[in-house]
Amino acid sequence: MVSLALEIVGITLSTLGWIMSIVCCTLPMWRVSAFIGANIVTAQVYWEGLWMSCVFQSTGQMQCKVYDSMLALPQDLQAARALTVVSIMIGILALLIATVGAKCTNCIPDEGVKARVMASSGGAFIAASLALLVPVSWSANTIVVEFYSPISIIHLILDSSLFTVLCYRQ
Q1: What digits encode the pLDDT tens for the residues 1-51?
Q2: What is the CA radius of gyration of the chain?
Q3: Which UniProt keywords are given for this protein, alphabetically ordered (predicted)?
């Protein structure tokens, strides 16, 4: 009975992590502009995501534009696009495997086989989390390096999409 409860908690947390990876993939807040120095009052805030960039103006108006070409994106965002989609797909596969191998289902009658199926589901969830952790870490490193660059006028900072992954995927 205790192992069934632990299994349900594990599947629930894994499903929550998978949903958060979808949210992370869709939000346009991977990079947010921050003006440092004399520009204390800003009229526009720039958001960059995997699929679009947005400009939020001080009047409350927001305009978003889908990227014209994938080749125009930096390398870290190109890799992040691919790896987040791969992570979501592996998460779907892991959820399906967990559904088949759960103790509360009758798809597999042998308990030993069910345990191995659930272990493979856990391995798939770990692979999905690592596939999402790589682009998040790479983008965070790029943002930190560009933030301290003396050439850049507009500094980009980490925002909620990256923090969502770092908090829920560990």
Answers
A1: 678 888 899 899 999 999 999 999 998 888 887 665 555 556 788 888 899
A2: 20
A3: Cell junction, Cell membrane, Membrane, Tight junction, Transmembrane, Transmembrane helix
Determine contact, residues 100/107, Cβ cutoff 8 Å: yes
Helix 111-147 / helix 2-26 crossing angle, nearest 10 deg = 30
Domain edges within the chain = 2-168
Handedness of CA 26, 15, 142, 39 (dihedral sign): positive
The total of other beta-carbon atoms located within 10 Å of residue 164's CB is: 17
Residue with tokens 């030993």: 112
Q: Say how many Å lie between the first and final Cα of the chain, rounded.
A: 26
Sign (positive/negative) of CA torsion 8, 132, 32, 67? negative
Tell how many helices (H) and how many strands (E) occur in the chain: 4, 5
Q: How far apart, in whole angstroms, are the C-alpha atoms of residue 90 and residue 73?
A: 25
> 2-168 maps to which CATH number?
1.20.140.150
Tens of pLDDT, residue by residue over 73-105, are: 888 889 999 999 999 999 999 999 999 988 888
